Each structure stands twice: as C-alpha cells, then as structure tokens.
Amino acid sequence: MLATLRRCSPLLLLVLAALARAEDLPLLEDGEKARLLGQAQQLEEEAATMKNGAETKFTQDQEACYQKFLVNACISDAKKERVKVIQVAREKEAQARAIRREANARDLATQSARKAADAPREAAKTEEKVQQFHAEQSKAEQDRSQNQADLQRRTQEGHTKAVKDAQDRAKRLAEHNEEVAKAQAKGGNGATPEDEVRQNVADREKRVAEKTAKRLAKEQQQAADKAAWEAEQRRRGQGE
After folding, report:
1. What is each CA distance from 127 to 11, 39, 134, 187, in whole angstroms?
2. Which stretch is the leader sequence (predicted)?
3. What's the helix, strand, coil split of the chain in %, to 5?
4. Is the pTM of this model over 0.85?
5. CB under 8 Å to 153, separation ≥6 — which residues?
6. Which residues of the chain are modeled with pLDDT < 50?
7. Rounded alpha-carbon distances, angstroms, from residue 104 to 24, 37, 39, 42, 63
C-alpha cells in the first residue's frame, strides 16, 4: 500500500496542486483559451522544426568531419551543437505544455465559476417547474371533480325530468281513464275506437317513461360508482 502511494504521489501532488491553484486562476475571457492553445501549438511546431533542423545539420556536420584531420573532436563539437539546439527545443515544448495546462485549468475554473453563478438561477427554474407541475395537477384534479359533479348533476336532472314526465303521463292517463269510465257509465257502452287508440298510446308512453326512468337511474348509479372508484384511486396514489 505504501509503495503504491509512493508511486502515485507525484501525480497526486500535481492534481492537488492544480485544484489548489484553480481557485486563484483568472477566469478565461471569450476566445482566450483558443489564443493560449494557439501559442502552445506554435511553440510545439517551432520545437519540432528546431529538432529536425538539428538532426539534419548534425548529419551534414558528421559527414564533413570525416574529411577533417581531427574527426572525433569535430564530431564531438557537432554533437554538442545538436544537444544545445535540442535543449532549446525541449524548453519550448515545456513552455507549450505549461500553457496548455494553464488553459485547461483556467477553463475548468471558468466553468466552475459559471456553474456556481448559475446555480441559484437553475434552482429557481427547478422550483418554478415544480410549482407549475403542482398547479397543473391541482387544476386537473379540480377539472376532474367538476366534470364528475357536472355529470352527476346532468344525470340527476335527466332522471328527475324523466320521472316527472312519467308522472305527468300517468296523471294524464289516469284522468283520461276516469273520463272514459264516466262516459261509459253515462252511455252504458264500451269505449270508442278512438278511445282505445288513445289508451294504447298512453300505455305505450307509460312503458317508455318507466324504461327511461330505470335507465337513467342505472346510469346515475354507474356514474356515482365510477366517481367513488376514481376518488379512491387518487387517494391511494396520494398516500403512496
């Protein structure tokens, strides 16, 4: 375990140092990250050009050294010159890496700062959406309750009207029968064909009225049972 920590310690130190510096880094302006990365790329290209040039020159100098008397000394000098150029190129590469690290660290700090600044606004938006959702749910519940109440009211009104119509027809039929009976008592004979037709019509209307009243009563009971079932389901849903 200790050996693992020792192997990871340089990387951990770099990460911790980057996190510690992130709070102190200036935030990026618009287009600044692209500018920094462009500088890093330019340094890397310059370093690559210098390395290639150093290798090419060393090859040429090495061939020329074989034509001289002190070959080894000449080659040694050529190597030293090559090392100097490569060292400068490596310094440029190190500068490029540092610029890239700075750009990434400042970008991270900028994003963190923007998230922190946007947090209250995002929280407010979330709360607004929650409130809107609750309001919509409440309105939908009110609409459902109102629709159920309207349905029950219309059903009750229809039932009441059907019952009243049936009662009116029955009353008219009773009055008609009474008049027929009186006429028969006076005339001593049965009802006329017209009276029989009217009687048949009245009987049929009475049967239709009774069926209508039963149907409306059944529909009203079904609507009441459905409303009670939906209310129970909503109550259970709210309890969960």
Report:
1. 41, 44, 11, 88
2. 1-22
3. 90, 0, 10
4. no
5. none
6. 1-16, 18-20, 22, 188
7. 14, 9, 14, 17, 45
